[in-house]
Amino acid sequence: MDRLFTYILFLLSLSGTFSKYIYIKDPKTWNEAQDYCRERYTDLAPVSNKQDLNRLQKMINPPDLYIWIGLIRNSSDRTKWLWSGGGAPTMYFWQKYEPNGYYLQEDYGFLWKGKWYDASSRYEKTFFCYSAAVVTEKKTWEEALEYCREHHDDLASVASETEMLLIQKELNKHNTTEHVWIGLRFLPGNWLWVDGQEMDYEAWGQGGKPSCPHAKIKCGALKVTGGSKPVWEAHDCEERLHFICY
Q1: Is residue 6 part of a domain?
Q2: Which residues is 63 bridged to in the sheet?
Q3: Cβ neighbours, 10 Å, residue 128
Q4: Would the pLDDT of 76 be above 50?
Q5: Which pTM does this prediction carry?
Q6: If you compute the radius of gyration of the chain from its CA atoms, what whole number of angstroms results?
Q7: CB within 8 Å of 185: residues ≥ 6 apart
């Protein structure tokens, strides 16, 4: 089975499809876009790493459009930036000489040709939402993977602290099992995301990342903590848990 998952992971890493991002073609101001995403999906989209940035850019057609993302200036320290869903960027992709609107109330971030720019909220642009879906059906890890790929795109990866906060936001809307499956799997020698997401961010619990788990304890779950920050744990892949798709 590990060989099969390795092959699937390889194919997905080439496919470049991430439906955690939803492209909305109806232009809106930044605040209107935020309201729209929060009402229909989870929030305005964060950009966790270079891989996400490249995939977002490939979704834009034509490629020279201005696109709102969930980037907003920190009101308590205007030299810093935050994501709409919480947390701060860990990587920055500003164009040279950006951000440059400190005194002009250019407090919102948009994407253009793979770079970030700041702008006033009053301008209308198309935008990206972030979407995570909590499924309250109890399934094994492999059944959850199959369900997500049939009805959504994949079992969810967690690429940053901000994505963790956004997933927690969705979990708070549901009465779930104490742990929920995510797309984390121990394949030969390491823990990997089955959608091909890079492992730039980790949030293992008190026991840390298992380096040599038991043969059955090779599937990753998110511990739902009801207010405090969720953590990852290794679980028996045959357990039946709720899960998160995107």
Answers
A1: no
A2: none
A3: 25
A4: yes
A5: 0.88
A6: 18
A7: 5, 141, 191, 192, 193, 194, 218, 219, 220
Residue 14 domain flag: no
From the list 164, 177, 138, the residue with the least C-alpha distance to 232 is 164
pLDDT at 212 over 90: no
Domain range for 124 is 21-130
Residue 61 lies in a domain: yes
Residue 215 in tokens: 């043969």
Measured between alpha carbons, how far is 221 from 234 in angstroms, rounded to an integer?
6
Which amino acid appears at position 13 of this protein? S
Alpha carbons 231 and 206: distance in angstroms, whole number? 9
Q: How many domains does the chain have?
A: 2
Residue 16, pLDDT score: 42
Contact at 8 Å (CB) between 190 and 211?
Answer: no
Q: Is 2 contained in some domain?
A: no
Asked if 3 and 42 touch (Cβ cutoff 8 Å), the reply is: no
At which residue do the structure tokens 């879906």 appear? 133
Question: Do both 140 and 227 map to the same domain?
Answer: yes
Residue 97 Rama label (left phi>0; alpha psi -120 to 50; beta): left
β-bridge mates for residue 128, sequence order = 23
3-state class of 59 per DSSP? helix
Q: Confidence class of residue 216 from pLDDT cuts 50, 70 and 90?
A: confident
Q: What residue ranges in the chain does DSSP mark as E strands? A: 21-28, 43-44, 67-73, 81-83, 108-112, 115-119, 125-130, 133-139, 179-187, 190-193, 219-223, 231-235, 241-245
